[in-house]
Write a structure and sequence with these properties.
By secondary structure, the protein is an alpha/beta fold. The chain has 22 helices and 12 strands. The chain is 52% helix and 9% strand.
Length: 617
């Protein structure tokens, strides 16, 4: 490993900076002031200025051949173009071509030395003549200056400082992260900035000193102080070019090394204020580890909307750069900040929303009407959120269709990714299950309108006295209304909530497990977590039909589909299972066989690999 890529590589730019400054002081000490000024500053024609030009000229091909920027081709091209524009404008300034252009177009206002002519009759607000370079604010505010001349001055400033400022602001956070992370490229960029500050101070200092002592710039011989400022100004301009070239080279080295040495393992960063223990998140984290990815987390603490600022304050940029930022389930509030942080660094973002906030408020809970201003505002906001990341995954193909239709996300940037389940927790029971005295039906999960709890309760009411018992294990805001609805029904038991790892023990006590039965549009688009968990534990299920199921589901004896919101259909499905319960083991085996072939983590893993491949990862 060489010095540049070693742990102390960041020290190279500061060492070069101080060495060059010392060299400038040595040259100043060795030369007479007049000699130094003659060698260093002759309006772009001195030996030193002419020697500086090739360094600036080299920046343009250098930034295209050794492109130091990561990310997409468009991002790298735009940033390289901005650097090229600034380099060309620096050459224009070094040769005083901007002043020559004004002299050629407006000779009555600008002399051949690039200064405003006294004969032009331009005055400051205090009545004194306006002199010096025309590239200053007083020229723009002076009513005697022609509009075309003002336009050229504004155009010059916009082309140089506008492009430079835009690039600086865009890359500022990257630079700060790099400095704190001791990255050589960022320190070289910092030395470039330090050289620019030195140039500005050295350029303005003689005028400040002359003004303080009431002297004219042309009064008397060249002093030692003036010659020192000249050396630092012109030498600093050379240093700017040198550090620009060094920054480009070091940045290119970092990008190259990140593409070659950081490939094993790839790294995913889970971003947001999310529940690590939620089933879908557990599965996705486990799958990335199985694929050999390093898994990192950034848990937003303060404000999801400004998570990128929190990331900066907490030093996220000093961690190894991820290949992918993953924003998990229901974290719409995190997605924009995650995209800002990741896209500045050329990192792709995948959003796994699972639900739409607009869909939940308007179509599922029906709290808002679609034409209400707040509903339209939420729809517009969520449209922006869904289109911000590079890729969006949904639990079913039905949700992919919904997102394309409702939020106009291109279908090529979406794919279904089944929920799956943690197979270390949800697995078939060891040994043959003990027969139940009554046929037991289980619902487990949140009490939500989506799940159609009222139809489950009504189905239980319809089977009182028929040897069928219904166990409900759940939680959520609608638990109390569900309990009130079930009051007086003798064959329902509301079970106490149990730890996640104990849910399979409850599933093993059931003969059949229930899924989703709501009448909302969303209910027809989901395959509930409980389906994956039940079939992973080798138990047959009853559920509302969703086209997102694998096609083979219709032929599986361990899945019975019923119409939405139909308690009688639920009862019929339960009775059909019970009628053939002498063959219960065949149903259990069919459930687990279907799970392994279509819903297991191995199948979800295949989907994830395909998605990462489509993202170029």
């Amino acid at each position: 490993m060489d010095f540049i890529t070693g742990r102390k590589g960041w020290m190279l730019p500061p060492v070069v900076f101080f060495a060059l400054v010392v060299a400038l002081f040595a040259v100043w000490a060795a030369l007479e002031p007049a000699t130094l000024v003659r060698l260093f500053d002759q309006d772009g024609r001195s030996p030193f200025e002419l020697a500086t030009l090739p360094f600036y000229a080299a920046i343009v091909p250098m930034v295209w051949i050794f492109n130091p920027f990561g990310g997409s081709r468009r991002r790298r091209t735009v940033l390289a173009l901005m650097v090229s524009i600034v380099a060309v404008m620096a050459i224009v300034k070094e040769l005083d071509l901007h002043n020559m252009a004004l002299h050629a177009l407006y000779p009555q206002f600008v002399g051949d030395d690039g200064s405003i002519l006294a004969s032009a009759g331009l005055h400051k607000p205090n009545g004194k003549l306006l002199t010096g370079t025309p590239f200053k604010m007083r020229v723009l505010t002076n009513g005697g200056v022609p509009f075309g001349m003002k336009a050229l001055v504004v155009g010059y400033f916009a082309a140089f400082f506008g492009v430079f400022a835009a690039g600086f602001v865009y890359l500022l956070q990257f630079w700060i992260d790099g400095v704190l992370g001791l990255r050589p490229c960022a320190w070289a960029w910092g030395c470039l900035g330090g050289s620019g500050v030195m140039v500005q101070i050295a350029d303005r200092l003689p005028a400040w000193l002359d003004h303080a002592h009431g002297l004219s710039k042309s009064e008397g011989a060249v002093t030692a102080a003036q010659s020192l400022c000249t050396a630092l100004e012109e030498g600093g301009e050379l240093m700017i070019a040198v550090f620009a070239l060094l920054t480009i080279y070091l940045g290119w080295r970092e990008v190259r090394d990140s593409r070659t040495t950081a490939r094993a393992p790839r790294r995913v960063l889970f971003w947001g204020r999310f529940d690590h223990g939620y089933s879908r998140n557990r599965v996705n984290i486990a799958l990335f580890k199985e694929l050999g990815w390093a898994v990192d987390f950034f848990d937003v603490v303060v404000s999801p909307r400004f998570g990128d600022i929190e990331a900066f304050c907490r030093g996220l940029g000093r961690r190894p750069k991820p290949d992918l930022v993953w924003v998990p389930v229901c974290r719409q509030r995190d997605i924009m900040a995650a995209c800002r942080w990741a896209h500045r660094r050329g990192v792709k973002v995948l959003f796994d929303p699972m639900i739409s906030a607009w869909d939940k408020k308007v179509l599922e809970q029906r709290k808002w009407k679609a034409d209400e201003p707040r509903a339209r505002k939420l729809h517009d906001a969520e449209t922006a959120m869904m289109n911000a990341p590079d890729f969006v995954t949904w639990d079913t193909s039905c949700h992919v269709d919904f997102c394309e239709r409702e939020f106009h996300v291109p279908r090529e940037r979406m794919a279904p990714l089944f929920t799956g389940t943690d197979e270390k927790v949800f697995r078939p029971q060891e040994g043959a299950p003990a027969p139940n005295a009554e046929f037991r039906v289980l619902y487990h999960g949140a009490y939500l309108p989506l799940h159609g709890m009222e139809y489950i309760v009504e189905a239980a009411r319809m089977t009182e006295g028929r040897g069928i018992h219904w166990d409900l294990l759940g939680w959520g805001a609608y638990k109390a209304p569900t309990e009130a609805l079930a009051k007086g029904i003798s064959n329902i038991t509301f079970l106490d909530k149990v730890p996640y790892v104990d849910v399979p023990k409850v599933i093993y006590t059931a003969d059949v497990v229930l899924g989703v039965f709501g009448t909302t549009e969303k209910a027809s688009r989901v395959i509930g977590n409980k389906i994956f968990e039940a079939m992973g534990c080798a138990r047959p299920v009853i559920n509302e039909f969703c086209t997102g199921y694998p096609p083979e589901a219709k032929d599986c004896k361990a899945i019975k589909f019923v119409p939405p919101g139909d308690a009688a259909a639920i009862v019929k499905a339960v009775e059909e299972y019970r009628a053939d319960w002498a063959n219960r083991e065949s149903y259990n085996e069919a459930a687990y066989d279907f799970f392994k072939r279509h819903l297991s983590m191995a199948e979800v893993k295949k989907q994830l690999v395909g998605i990462l491949g489509r993202m170029g990862l």
